[in-house]
Specification:
Layout: E1 2-15, E2 18-23, E3 26-32, H1 39-51, E4 55-56, E5 62-64, H2 66-69, E6 72-77, H3 99-117, E7 122-124, E8 132-146
Parallel strand pairs: 3-6, 6-7
Antiparallel strand pairs: 1-2, 1-3, 1-8, 4-5
Helix pairs in contact: 1-3
């Protein structure tokens, strides 16, 4: 499992013309689930996400975590994070988890974030939907987090 995290001033996701999730200061997280991932890895990755110290402190050094900064999280499922592009020009998604498993683990990750941050500080996209994601990246800062079983 991997999470591509972007520190943002603002982020939103729209499905069929309707905004279904939006945050101000915080993280937009693109979450990719691969075959063999587990609920334990989803919880581990959620804890790492919240503890990631990439917000500026009083000296403008990246030294504050999401909890300290009072930020929110917008989580978007993205199986393409597990694209294999080593062969040819068309990505292979064979490493990505099947939708049933991916959805369950995506929901586990979101639930773990909500347990830590509270319901109101976690927004989501819509699993398996075509989404328009708008991001005002802050920094820009983009970090990839991987679960323990990720190579």
């Amino acid at each position: 499992m991997k999470a591509l995290i972007q520190r943002v001033q603002r982020g939103s996701v729209t499905v069929e013309g309707q905004t279904i999730g939006a945050i101000n200061c915080g993280f937009v997280v693109f979450l990719g689930v691969k075959q063999g991932d587990t609920a334990a890895e989803a919880a581990y990755l959620a804890e790492k996400t919240v503890a990631l110290r990439i917000f500026p402190d009083e000296n403008e050094r990246m030294n504050r975590a999401l909890l300290e900064a009072g930020g929110a999280v917008l989580v978007i499922s993205q199986f393409t994070l597990h694209a294999d592009t080593r062969k040819g020009n068309r990505p292979s998604f064979i490493l990505a988890a099947p939708p049933e498993l991916a959805k369950d683990l995506y929901e586990e990750y979101v639930a773990a974030l909500r347990r830590i941050l509270g319901q109101e500080r976690v927004a989501t996209g819509q699993f398996q939907a075509r989404m328009i994601v708008e991001i005002i990246n802050d920094g820009p800062v983009t970090i990839e987090l991987k679960s323990r079983n990720e190579q």
